[in-house]
TrEMBL record:
The UniProt record lists the keyword Secreted: no
Signal peptide: none
Protein name as it appears in the record: AMP-dependent synthetase and ligase
Species of provenance: Halothiobacillus neapolitanus (strain ATCC 23641 / DSM 15147 / CIP 104769 / NCIMB 8539 / c2)
Residue ranges of domain AMP-binding enzyme C-terminal in the record: 437-512
Every AMP-dependent synthetase/ligase domain range: 22-387
Highest taxon in the source lineage: Bacteria
Length: 530
């Protein structure tokens, strides 16, 4: 493992709001690189000036703080400028998954009541279709000049005087992260500014290097920015004065090229990305000599893949576990734990200082060590609420505890082990899919009586969704037609990889679908059912 030079650590200070990051870094590191993207390099000075222009534009357009501003498109410099522009202007940032269909985008736009929507040129058609579909009136700003009445180019080159920016409250909502819900519709997770700095501050105070960022680091953002993991990672890097390396889209060969060209030292990725990256490294006989740490999360990793990664890359590995609702990571399997005891390789890790865990049964009773139950987390980085959903909020957030829906247990040393999911979420390549959302669409097909979506194991993606359908009486389901039907109605990663017709679905006496019985046929003999 590569040694750590304490003299290279970023300045240890407590961040109170997201906007403060750039204000601080531009004073100390104006000429230093902040963003590497597709061969371009943006300094902290340019980064700040562009973000400030965005903030001035937002203040001029919106009448009060906490209005919602969306962004849809692949990550590039403007994505991060919009993030900090929103933070400085006191409005709420809403990143939207560019993989979604117009119908799915329309739900988020209307649910969040987005006032201004930034879009790259590639997604402009989807944006226009979604707005026509829902009838929502939002001002659209295209990143490419001349494609909308308001262009990003015009914002950056405005000569208007700087506006008076509102004072930031660290408790105020900074962003809405939309995560799929069991009702089939995504829910907006309201996260305050402070959620993005509580864990970093706790690690600094305890002098723990489980996760660390140095000013000289060049940090690969492997996880998309519309996920809490990608957004959280980038903000930690900027907080430390480091540089980020941005991939508009993850492709293994392009990722390797960027890592080599930019001299990446740390990276945050999901296990499926690590697997694909290792393939191209071995194919090219490449050496990432500057890489010192990979942080991974978003889904389980096999012991074989983890040991392969350690062998090929020779760097530290740290696993993070958490949810959008916990402000991203709440538990970490630190680098030392990866090497100290083989049995810990299947653990999620230990809670950070200031984070508490408990395992409860179905009655809410706390279970002793070693017994499996629902994992509950109390963290200072937790969400405020689900946007406009008080009942869903009270079900998930109880007395300061986030009820995760994951099943797990704690060992005698306080390590958390995740065994299965109490909720039915499928995690494929770091993307979460809730069966109810897919089932709602499949069930609308003319000859489908009922259906069930489950995740089955996959060596590359962890698991992938498949669908079992029961035809309507005296009808038949044409599988080819059903796949075509789903093409425009579901994001690509949500579409079932297989569809099978069955006579019936297993149910209990109360009529509840026994999804576990369907899963067992595919997961039997495996150590973990995730």
């Amino acid at each position: 493992m590569r040694s750590m030079d304490a003299s290279d650590l970023g300045e240890l200070y407590v961040v109170k709001d997201v906007g403060e990051i750039l204000r601080r870094q531009v004073k100390k590191r104006a000429s230093e690189p902040a963003i590497f993207c597709d061969g371009r390099v943006t300094s902290y000075d340019s980064f700040y000036k562009h973000s400030r222009k965005v903030a001035d534009f937002l203040v001029s357009r919106l009448s009060c703080i906490e209005r919602r501003v969306g962004y849809i498109g692949r990550e590039c410099e403007p994505y991060y400028e919009v993030i900090f522009g929103c933070a400085m202007a006191g409005v709420i940032f809403v990143p939207i998954n560019w993989r979604l269909t117009p119908n799915e985008v329309a739900h988020i736009v209307t649910d969040a009541s987005i006032d201004i929507l930034f879009s790259d040129a590639e997604m402009l058609g989807v944006v226009e279709e979604s707005l026509d579909m829902c009838g929502h009136d939002a001002e659209v700003v295209c990143l490419k000049h001349g494609m909308t009445s308001t262009s990003y180019f015009a914002i950056l080159h405005s000569v208007a005087k700087e506006s008076v920016l509102p004072a930031c409250d660290p408790e105020r909502t900074f962003c809405l992260i939309y995560t799929s819900g069991t009702t089939g519709l995504p829910k907006g997770v309201c996260l305050p500014h402070k959620a993005f700095f509580q864990i970093r501050e706790a690690l600094i105070k305890q002098d723990l290097k489980w996760l660390d960022w140095r000013q000289s680091d060049r940090c690969l953002v492997g996880i998309p920015g519309f996920h809490i993991g990608g957004l959280w990672w980038a903000l930690q890097c900027f907080s430390s004065g480091a540089s980020i390396v941005v991939l508009p889209k993850f492709e293994p060969q392009l990722c390797l090229t960027a890592m080599l060209d930019c001299g990446v030292t740390t990276a945050c990725m999901v296990p499926s990305m690590i697997n694909l990256l290792l393939d191209v490294i071995e194919q090219n006989d490449a050496k990432l000599l500057k890489l010192r740490k990979i942080v991974y999360g978003g889904g389980p990793i096999s012991e074989a893949l983890l040991m392969r990664g350690i062998s090929v890359l020779g760097c530290d590995f740290a696993q993070i576990y958490g949810l959008s609702e916990t402000g991203n990571t709440a538990v970490c399997l630190d680098p030392d734990s990866h090497l100290s005891e083989p049995s810990l390789l299947t653990a999620a890790g230990r809670p950070y200082p200031g984070v508490k865990l408990k395992i409860i049964d179905t009655d809410g009773k706390v279970l002793p060590m070693g017994e499996v139950g629902e994992v509950c987390i109390k963290t200072p980085a937790r969400m405020i609420e689900y946007w406009g959903l008080p009942d869903a909020t009270s079900a998930t957030l109880q007395d300061g505890w986030i009820h995760t829906g994951d099943a797990g247990y704690l060992n005698e040393s306080g390590y958390l082990f995740i065994c299965d999911r109490i909720k039915d979420v499928i995690v494929t390549g770091g993307e979460k899919i809730f069966p109810a959302e897919v089932e709602n669409v499949v069930s609308s097909f003319s000859t489908v009586h009922e259906c069930a979506v489950i995740g089955i194991p996959n060596e590359v993606w962890g698991e992938v969704p498949i669908c079992l359908v029961v035809p309507k009486p005296e009808s038949a389901v044409n599988i080819t037609d059903l796949f075509k039907f789903l093409e425009s109605r579901l994001a690509a990663y949500k579409k079932p990889t297989q569809i099978h017709c069955v006579d019936s679905l297993p149910r209990n006496p109360s009529g509840k679908l026994l999804r576990r019985a369907l899963r067992d046929a595919f997961w039997t003999g495996r150590k973990r059912n995730v």
